[in-house]
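Module 6 notes. Inverse folding takes a fixed backbone as the condition and produces residue identities as the prediction. Think of it as a translation problem where the source language is geometry and the target language is the twenty amino acids. Below is one complete input and output pair. Work through it position by position during the lab.
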């Protein structure tokens, strides 16, 4: 299926969770995720499915102080 990740169009498996997408794209947590403008919380990464034509925004969280 076709989705957009950070404004790039990619092709992924039909049913893919947020956590599986992060693994496929080689993102290491922590990563903030939004799907179609709605933030997905860490506890939902295993249950939330990415669907055809979704727009996903991934932002790596960098600690500092």
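Target side of the pair, the amino acids:
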């Amino acid at each position: 299926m076709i989705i957009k990740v950070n404004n790039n169009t990619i092709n992924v498996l039909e049913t893919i969770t947020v956590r599986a997408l992060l693994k496929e794209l080689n993102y290491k947590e922590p990563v903030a995720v939004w799907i179609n403008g709605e933030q997905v919380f860490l506890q939902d990464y295993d249950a939330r499915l990415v669907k055809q034509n979704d727009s996903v925004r991934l932002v790596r969280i960098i600690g500092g102080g």
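Reference fact for the lab report: The mean pLDDT is 93.
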